[in-house]
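Sample pair:
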Amino acid sequence: MVDTYQTIAREARIEFKVKGSRFIGESRLTDDVEDAIGKLDAIRRREFAATHHCWAYRIGADGTPVFKYSDDGEPGGTAGRPIFDALEGNAITNCLLVVTRYFGGTKLGTGGLARAYSETARQTLDASGVKTCYHAVDYELAMEFPFYNPVHQLLARLQAEITESHFTDRVRLRIAVRRSLAERLEQEYAESTQGKATIIRLGPTSAG
């Protein structure tokens, strides 16, 4: 089961100049289309004097990503598609990539435009870095104290993350484990606690 995906490690902003035209590349983390459009609009408002705001997004870490791109008035295929190709070529999802252009007075031609937008997108992603995330499943565990050590060892073996812990008359933990290891966790948890502890599956999440 594939339960990993790649996104940008950080949001970034770079500038790139070609024959007087100023290109500004910006990356934004996003996990839904409405959020991506909101972040695009914020860049448009800030850079209101720019000639073009060309962009692409690729969203959806589970399955086939949803994507869209725009040339924003540049000749067809010279801006949005090269920006999108930078995302797809690096297998990056949950990201909005915007390239803002301030025209410098010299026309670049279709080939020159495509190269400029592609290079700005590439430099922006280089500055953003890549982070591998995984699909996880959240659980709530409750057990008597004698079972805590073997359970803790089990969680370490499966590289599960303990997100909350409470120690009263019993031990209560909230954890996240990779989706591909969820069934193994449930089975080995029952074995480690001799079936005398509780485990509640809370639902899916993501972790980096």
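The longest strand covers residues 130-143.
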